């Protein structure tokens, strides 16, 4: 990882360990961040969707960032700063900077279906903090699609340096590279990792390394280094789990896999509900099969 582009490499969108009473277990979270780095990951992204930021209090959300920084250093922490208003997103970016972080990740406005002018103004406001901004394109959840042409404009204006691409449309990688060759493409969905790595992605904002970091890191590096025999073999074995990252129940699934491999996943806060029995059985079987194959 390089300091001037801390989003490169494998950055884990961290799941947030909760106690049985649904309070945040900060000590376990700190240990988890350190464990991820010790197992080959380059950094963490706290307060993303996987970290359940939407149901945290402001005090909890700030402390999560501070906990990660204290555990592994600010150069390895890229918090999500999504919020309903641009002013609030900017305040979260400022908090990240004060905590020692070197970059932030930002969704477009998600309180409504924002038009292009609103998207530009939103990113311009957060960019005023001076921290590099990584855009997060998740049109499935936000209903705002950062299409390649809009990303190129955001980059051209100096508002963003990279994009976490979660649309699932791998064809966009090549269009983004044509329109904005200096904009770093980050893999945003675990189940298109190989396709986007081949398309010259510079990093992976990842979900399943929360449970299987070593195998995930090996997969990423094999893919970006062009060792396709190794990458394809790992991808096939991991894909029954990786595809959960693109499903509604991704938080519950990844936390269950964490529990099964001896980590602390724990419960989720409402309104997220536990997995249905058939979903739990599928995640359990896929996780146990991966572990039995020696993946960790």
TrEMBL record:
Pfam families linked to this entry: DHDPS (PF00701)
Annotated protein name in UniProt: Dihydrodipicolinate synthase family protein
Source species taxonomy: Bacteria, Bacillati, Actinomycetota, Actinomycetes, Kitasatosporales
Alphabetized InterPro entries for the sequence: Aldolase_TIM, DapA-like
SMART domains in alphabetical order: DHDPS
Keywords (A to Z) from UniProt: Lyase
Originating species: Streptomyces swartbergensis
Family of the protein in this entry: Belongs to the DapA family.
Keyword Ion transport belongs to the record: no
Entry-linked PANTHER family: DIHYDRODIPICOLINATE SYNTHASE
Residues noted as binding pyruvate in the record, renumbered to the chain: 205
GO MF assignments: 4-hydroxy-tetrahydrodipicolinate synthase activity
Catalytic machinery residues: 136, 164
